[in-house]
Amino acid sequence: MSVLVYTESEKGKFKKSAFEVASYAHKVAQDLGTSVTAVTFNANDEASLGNYGVSKVLKISNDQLTTFNAKAYANALAQAAEAEGAKVIIVSSSADTKFLAPILTAKLNAGYVPNVVAAPDSTSPFVVKRTAFSNKGFAHTEISSEVKIIGVSNNAYGAMENNVSASVEDFSPTLGDADFSTKSIEVDKVAGKVSIADADIVVSGGRGLKGPENWGMVEELAEVLGAATACSKPVSDLGWRPHGEHVGQTGKPVASNLYIAIGISGAIQHLAGVNASKTKVVINNDPEAPFFKAADYGIVGDAFEVVPKLIEKLKEFKAQNA
Amino acid sequence: MKILVCISNVPDTTSKINFSDGDTKFDTNGVQFVINPNDEFGLTRAMWFKEKQGATVHVATVGGPQTEPTIRKALAIGADEAIRVNAEPTDGFFVAKQLAEIVKNGGYDLVIAGRESIDYNGGMVPGILATLLDMNFVNTCIGLEVDGNTATALREIDGGKEKLSTSLPLVIGGQKGLVQESDLRIPNMRGIMMARQKALNVVEPVEASQPTQDQKFEKPAPKGQVKLVDADNVGELVNLLHNEAKVI
Ligand SMILES: Cc1cc2nc3c(=O)[nH]c(=O)nc-3n(C[C@H](O)[C@H](O)[C@H](O)COP(=O)(O)OP(=O)(O)OC[C@H]3O[C@@H](n4cnc5c(N)ncnc54)[C@H](O)[C@@H]3O)c2cc1C
Ligand SMILES: Nc1ncnc2c1ncn2[C@@H]1O[C@H](COP(=O)(O)O)[C@@H](O)[C@H]1O
After folding, report:
1. Which CATH topology does B2-219 take?
2. A105 and A42 in one domain?
3. Residues contacting residue B117 through CB under 8 Å, at least 6 positions apart
4. What pLDDT, in 10s, does the model give residues B90-112?
5. Nearest atom of ligand 1 to the alpha carbon of A291
6. Is the CB of B61 within 6 Å of ligand 2?
7. Which residue of A has its CA nearest to B121?
8. For tag attachment on chain B, is the N or C end more exposed, with fewer CB atoms within 10 Å?
9. ipTM attached to this prediction
C-alpha cells in the first residue's frame, strides 16, 4: 500500500526532479499513513533517496533500459506498482515522464493528473491542485479511481529533506520484445548545456534582438548564470534559434526560479508558457511592453546596452561571492 | 494508409480565461474556439501524407454540437471525412476510450493527435489511446516519415531530439515541427464549399468511467507592481535578485 515514486536518473545520476517527486511522495505517504517506495532504472547511489523520505528502493538494473524507452519503462513501473500494491504513484513533469505516464495510466486503469503544483488539498476525497489553461488558471481536480497518478510540476513543490533510511532491493520486471517495438536510434543532445526543463534560470531572447548574430550576449549571460537559453516563437520561426528553444503556450513550458526576458513583448501566448516561473525579469526599451505587467523586475532600456552591463555586474557579483 | 487526426476544440490562444457557476465551470462567454494548435500541425502533416502518399484522412472529435464549426474547418483544410462523438470531453481517459472505439471500427493505421490540448493541458489522450489499442506511440513528435509499415519519428526531449524507429499501427502526440508554422493552411473558399458536402458523422459515446473530475477553478493571484530598475544602475538588479528574490 506504499506510495510509489518514479525517480528519474540520467547516466546513473538522479535528476533534481527525482528529489522533488520523492519529497512530494513523502508528504502524500504521511497523509495516508504509509511509506514511500521508489523505482530506479540503472541509477547509482539509490540509498541517497532516503534523504528525501524514501524508505524502500526497487532497483532495476537492466542493460536494455540504459536509454529511455517509454513503453518498457511504463511496463516496469506497472509491475512495481502491482508488486507493492501501490495505489498512488508520483511522477515528474519531464518530457520522458509525460511520454510514459499516459501509458502507465492505461495499463493500471488509473486516474492521472499532470501539472500538479501543491500537496494534495485532501486525500479523502483525493483532490489536487494543478495548472490549467496554460497557466491562466488552476483546477482542483478529484481523482476517484482506485489507482492515482500525480505528475508534479517542476520546481512547484521543491525538494525537502526527510531523513529516512532506505533499504534497496533488486527488482527485475519481465519485459518482452513487444515492449521494445519503438526503438531509439539516435539521441541528439548538446553536451554540457542546461536544458530548459531542468534549469533553475532561463535567459530568453525575442525579436527585439534583431537577428541571430546578436545572441552572443544572451549566451554569455546564460553562461554566467548557469542558465538555459530560450526564445520567443517568432525567433524560432525565423530560424534565428533552434525550435527546441521556443517557449510559450505552443512551445516548451518554463517553470524556472528565474526567467529573464530580453526584447520580448510579452504576448499572451508567450506569457502563458512562462508564467509559472517564480521571478520574472524584463529588459525592453518600450515601457508599454505588456511583459512589464507580468514581471517582478524590469529595466526599460536598450538590450544592447543593458545586457553587457548586466553580464559585467554579475561577473563582479560572482567574483565576490565565490 | 488510413489516418485519423484527433482534434480538440479549444479556446483561441488570446482568450481571457474566466470561470462561472461559483468557479466550477469554464466560462465560454465571448470565447472563440479553434482547432487545438498541436492538432493543426498534425492535420497539416496528414494533408502531406494525403497529397504525397495517397493517404485517406479522417478527423475525429469528442464534443457537443458546438464543436462542429471547428470540425468543419478541418474538413475545409482538406480532411476527407469527420466523426463527432457526441459527449462532453471532461476527462482524458473517457475521451481516449471514445476515440479507441472510432479507431477500432475505422481500421486506421496512423492516429495523429496532439502533445496536449491547450485548454486542460492533460497531455494524456494519445498515450492512453495507443495503450488501449496496443498500438505504438511516440509523444512530443516533431517529425514523422512513413514507408510501408515502418515509421521513423523524431521526438523532442529535454535538451535535444531523439530519433525513433517504430511501425504502424502508430499513434503520435504531435506538435510544431511536424510541419512548420509557414506550412499551416488557411481554408480557401473552395475548401469551405467542399467541406459542406463532406460527411460529418455523429456517433453516441460508449460507456466509460471518468477517473478525474475538476471540482473548482481559480485564477492566479493578481501580480504585484513590477519593480523598475534604472538602466544606468544595473547593479541594483543584481542586488535585488540576490537579496530580495533570492534567486541568484
Ligand atoms: C496560435 C499562436 C500561438 C503562439 N504561441 C506562442 C508561443 O508559444 N510562444 C511565443 O513566444 N509566442 C507565441 N505566439 C506569438 C505571440 O503572439 C507573439 O507574436 C510573440 O510572442 C512575439 O514575440 P517577441 O516578443 O519576440 O516579438 P515582438 O512582439 O516583435 O516584440 C519585440 C520586443 O522587443 C522590444 N525591443 C525592440 N528593440 C529592443 C531593444 N533594442 N532593446 C530591448 N527591447 C527591444 C520591443 O519593444 C518589443 O516589445 C503565438 C501566436 C499564436 C497566434
Ligand atoms: N475531445 C477530444 N476530441 C478529440 N481529440 C481529442 C480530444 N481531447 C484531446 N484530444 C486529442 O488528444 C490530444 C492531447 O489532448 P489532452 O490529452 O487533452 O491534452 C489533443 O491534441 C487531441 O489530438
Report:
1. Rossmann fold (3.40.50)
2. yes
3. B8, B10, B36, B38, B125
4. 999 999 999 999 999 999 999 99
5. 49
6. yes
7. A132
8. N
9. 0.96
